[in-house]
Amino acid sequence: MEKNSILLVSEKSPNRNFLPNLQKASSLEHKYITNFLPPKSSGQFTGKALLTPQHKQKTPERVRFTPQSLLRSQITLPVLELQNSEKQKKIVRISAFRGKSKKIQEPFEDRLKVYKSLPNLHEKLFSIKWSSVSIPGSTCGNKKKINQDSYAEVQDFIDKNTYLFGVMDGHGNSGHLISSFISEKLPKTLQKNLQKRNPNGENFRGFSNKEDLPQLRFSIRSSFLKTYNELLAQNTFDCVFSGSTSVFIMIDKEACICANVGDSRAVIGIQTKDEWKVLALSNDHKPENLTERQRIENSGGIIEKIKDHRGNYVGPERVWISGERLPGLAMTRSMGDSIGSCVGIISEPEISYTPLQPCNQIIILASDGLWEFVTNEEAVFLAAKYWGNSQAAVNELSKMASDRWNRNEPTVDDITIIVIFVTFSG
Fold it and tell me: Domain named PPM-type phosphatase: which ranges (predicted)?
């Protein structure tokens, strides 16, 4: 079902975790929540990731890891102090899971790219419409799999002019539980941290206020860290050998902020006359990314493909612990997969800031069930054919992705897509 919101404004500007014996289990659940009270206790960004490699670390000695030995280990971290909020918000849809495990502290670095705000323009009618779809993949013989994707849609995120959207793609035995856990926890934590993020304690002033950008960056990073630590602190499901991607965007009338971990992706299409300019809002965190690769190798990790029964390398490059056949992750960042933290797999989000233009725009968030065989340009151009009908756009995109999986692979990955139409008129 298509969702929409209209506001008059004055414009100022396949399987990643290679663990053959683990099977996906249980089912994806969703909670539909309205008017919840948060408990007490979202320029251009293109090219390579703006990453600063971590300091080179010594290659760790060979150690044999087992799930039991890892779960017995004790890791501590400082507790984050967050601002409380009494303001109610409307959650359109989030996936929900709870539960408790180890805690681990991630080193964070400054990676927010800031662009100049747009000049003052006359009043325009700002409107946003969106739709989403999430369908389970299939194995050989059309046997349906457990859908390990989750997504979040939050209207009136910080105030009535702001929105949050997110896509999570789980992997491993508990991937569906982890993605659902993140989709419930992270939006609420971001909401609380952003409501009073001004150093002077002032209320939210919009995503384009330059004075607030350093605190905005810190709030997003600390929100991801807190969610990651909560994930490790639960003991209901495994997050040592399982994990999830996480790509979120936050939108107001002036800007779109993207925070990403893993290889789910967000892109934007900007209409210029009769053409669409396509930009990536996020970068995929994979071993092919040279800066990501350097961090893994500096941490003592090994990057190589798996071998088939004939000894030939096949599939994507994966991250391994030296001397071990673990974790075999085809990503370099993950929410979870704590076994890989010793070889540079981190949960730190990469953040981009993109001013919205005074024209039609299309924003697409999706798991790699879409991006594996569909390019950024193909996705935007197809969605543009259905301008004004976001539900038709997500349906056609999911069909294109599914058809290409069927032509190229014996399996079809889970496919989750959110299409957002942004309009300035008047």
Answer: 132-422
Q: What is the pLDDT of residues 93-146, one digit of tens each?
A: 444 333 333 333 333 333 333 333 344 443 568 889 999 999 999 987 677 789
Structure-model confidence comparison of residues 34 and 2, the more confident one: 2
Length of the chain: 426
Give the residue-averaged pLDDT of 225-237. Answer: 97
Could you tell me which residues come within 8 angstroms of residue 152 by beta carbon, excluding any fewer than 6 positions away? 93, 94, 95, 164, 165, 166, 168, 183, 186, 187, 248
Contact indicator for 16, 144 with CB cutoff of 8 Å: no
Asked if residue 258 lies in contact with residue 88, where contact means CB atoms within 8 angstroms, the answer is no
**Whether pLDDT at 77 is above 70:** no
DSSP 156: S
Torsion of CA 84, 88, 93, 99, to 10 degrees: 30
**Which domains are assigned to the chain?**
3-118+146-262+286-354 (3.60.40)
Q: How far is residue 411's CA from residue 372's CA, in Å, rounded to a whole number?
A: 12
The pLDDT of residue 378 is above 80: yes
Residues in contact with 47: Cβ distance below 8 Å, sequence separation at least 6, in sequence order: none
Taking the alpha carbons at both ends of the chain, their separation in whole angstroms is 27
CA atoms of 115 and 352, how far apart (whole Å): 10
Give the mean model confidence (pLDDT) for residues 387-408. Answer: 97
Which residue type occupies 356? L
Give the span between the Cα atoms of 329 and 18, in whole angstroms: 6
Q: What is the pLDDT of residue 391?
A: 98
Distance CA 296, CA 287 (A): 8
* Token code pair at residue 17: 């975790």
Find the mean pLDDT for residues 3-9.
Answer: 49
Torsion angle of C-alpha atoms 296, 260, 390, 114, degrees rounded to 10: -120
The Cα–Cα gap between 403 and 370 comes to: 11
Instruction: Name the H helices within 154-200.
Output: 175-195
Residue among 170, 224, 172 at smallest CA distance from 194: 224
- Yes or no: say if 260 and 244 are a contact pair by the CB < 8 Å rule: no
| Rounded Cα gap, residues 266 and 248, in angstroms | 8
Distance CA 40, CA 50 (A): 35
Q: What does the pLDDT average to over 10-33?
A: 34
- For residues 134 and 146, is the Cβ–Cβ distance under 8 A? no
Which one has a higher pLDDT value, 84 or 223?
A: 223
238 Cβ neighbours under 8 A, 6+ residues apart = 67, 172, 173, 174
pLDDT band at 202 (very low <50, low <70, confident <90, very high): low
